[in-house]
Design brief:
Elements: H1 3-31, H2 39-58, H3 67-87, H4 96-125, H5 132-151, H6 161-183
Protein name: YggT family protein
InterPro entries: CCB3/YggT
Pfam family, one: CCB3_YggT
């Protein structure tokens, strides 16, 4: 791999990866009905609207799920896969759509993993903080954490549900993402979410 190819991959991975993260966050924020007036939410909305508004005219939402933002995430991921393959002189195979889906799924799992890690650390360092980022992360995590907390027995004020959530994320990562990626013949390091 030439230095110019490496630079091209670095630029594509960075720029497309950051935009893909913002699009996935937009999907999650609307899915959990997070605070629209949060400054972080406002940034995410403004960053995704130029591509999302025209797409929504073609792809409507369904049952409170913003299908257009999910399709945009898949399109962004697929474009990145094609660009990286072309940059390396490889003809893009038919599996690009599957690889893009695996990448978006992996990125969703990473958002939950890092969000959970941030909230656990923040609960030790700055409990009861009203930071807009922490509020938004909690709004994203709470729908996934609520069923686990209902099942967990009362541990005298100690919340062990993050441990169970970390374990579930790792299980999904290994079984779904890595298993699907290997089964589909996806090259390692090709997808932003992985």
């Amino acid at each position: 791999m030439t230095p110019l190819t490496q630079v091209g991959m670095l630029v594509i991975n960075t720029l497309v990866g950051l935009y893909l993260l913002v699009v996935v966050l937009r999907f999650l924020l609307q899915l959990v009905r997070a605070d629209f007036y949060n400054p972080v939410s406002q940034f995410i909305v403004k960053a995704t609207n130029p591509l999302l508004i025209p797409l929504r005219k073609v792809i409507p939402g369904w049952g409170g799920i913003d299908i257009a933002s999910l399709v945009l995430a898949l399109l962004v991921q697929a474009i990145a896969v094609v660009l990286i393959l072309l940059l390396n002189g490889i003809q893009p195979p038919i599996q690009v759509a599957l690889w893009a889906s695996i990448g978006v799924l992996s990125l969703l799992l990473k958002v939950y993993f890092w969000g959970l890690l941030i909230t656990v650390i923040a609960s030790w360092v700055a409990p009861n903080s009203y930071n807009p980022v922490l509020i938004l992360i909690n709004q994203i995590l709470e729908p996934a954490m609520k069923p686990i907390r209902k099942i967990m027995p009362d541990m005298g004020g100690i919340d062990l549900s993050p441990i169970i959530m970390f374990l579930l994320i790792q299980v999904f990562e290994v079984l779904l993402v890595q298993g699907l990626a290997k089964a589909s013949g996806m090259p390692a390091g090709l997808i932003m979410g992985i």
